[in-house]
Design brief:
The structure is a single chain. The protein is an alpha/beta fold. 31% of the residues lie in helices and 23% in strands. The chain has three domains: 214 residues, 3-Layer(bba) Sandwich (FAD/NAD(P)-binding domain), CATH 3.50.50.60; 115 residues, FAD/NAD(P)-binding domain (3-Layer(bba) Sandwich); 114 residues, FAD/NAD-linked reductase, C-terminal dimerisation domain (Enolase-like, domain 1). A six-stranded antiparallel sheet has the order 19-20-23-22-21-24. A five-stranded parallel sheet has the order 4-3-2-8-18, covered by helices on one side.
Length: 459
Amino acid sequence: MTRAFDAIIIGAGQAGPSLAGRLTDAGWTVAVVERKDFGGTCVNTGCMPTKTLVASAYAAHLARRSADFGVTLGGEVGVDMKRVHDRARTVTLNARGNLETWLGGMNGCTVFRGHARFEGPDTVRVGDELLTAPKIFLNVGGRANAPPMPGLDDIRYLTNVGMMEVEALPKHLVIVGGSYIGLEFAQMYRRFGAEVTVVEMGPRLIGREDSEISDAVREILEAEGVAVRTNAECISFAPAPEGVCVHVTCQEGAPQVTGSHVLLAIGRKPNTDDLGLDKAGVELDKRGYVVVDDQLKTTNPGVWAMGDCNGRGAFTHTAYNDFEIVAANLLDNDPRKVTDRITCYGLFIDPPLGRVGMTEAEARATGRPLLVGKRPMTRVGRAVEKGETQGFMKVVVDAETKAILGAAILGLNGDEAIHGMVDLMYAKAPYTVIQRAVHIHPTVSELIPTMLGELKPLD
């Protein structure tokens, strides 16, 4: 027997449950299918637990610096890793439980636990249940990438999922991948007391950023004792008595690093390979992402894809915005589209990086005449007062239109302060609007107008 609904939502990540709420409020009958943990990556193995760990690591770091603030602590600062992980697990379980309760009590919503597979353009099987709906929404997310690398099958390695289960402090954590996820784990575990080495194939960390940001981030991490090995061209693995031997063959330094644990942080891939999408007429690109148009429709006009599986954003906030775009088009007669979205994201090391729009390199590639402003955090009163003066803020402006093209704040509260730039860019207002704004003192944001008043032509 086939059960009919107005809509089927496959996956309960950041977009799916919110869409279920909007659709059921509109009177639709909705089936939500989830095969594992409600909340997706963010709630279970991503943002929420990792940022909880970051907070614990910051507390340990600040305690070790207490004398800098005139505060005396007795004895050496210790870290109870079981309590650290218990705290992170509690945050996750509370969020997951609240989501399950919400969906379970939602009028018009039926929750199915199991693996969904398409059996036709509008039909999905979940175990013994056959579900059909004229509209189906994919919110299946992604997972850590573990590409074929020499010796990888011969060792035990961790991804961001496995790291959430490691309650004992690693003696030496070797992280393969010098990008956002890897660097957050690198700093937090160094602050917990582990020896940490980051191995990156490219010439610098976080290669998509401008080199001055990459260099500053490396300096911040190395100052805390994180070892960084870039230009690791031929990475391979082998078991070792101490754990795992990672061959790096860098131009400088020892040709190999031996660690007790290895974390792979080399990108992610979509969970699209076992859904039977070919039976639904849903096209994938060469990397396995669902091909979507500007309203997130797939090549099947009755199927939409939201979140990490569509390749149009790899963040919790872009997944939620996908839900907003779909709901606006379906329910509100509001023709929103993905290409209206401005890229913004954070790197949540300490101090954090907040980024929006183009990098300087991307802005240069447009050929437009540019203005640039930059201010070190050593000249930001709030940072000086808190004793956290690492980093800088930077903005790139179109000299003719006065539009902000991109900005970065690497420093105290940079992940929050950047939103003034984000909002101005969405308003399509010239930089002079924020330049003339009066901000609260003493804050990080108050120096943004000052920086904009000192713009100079970019050579």
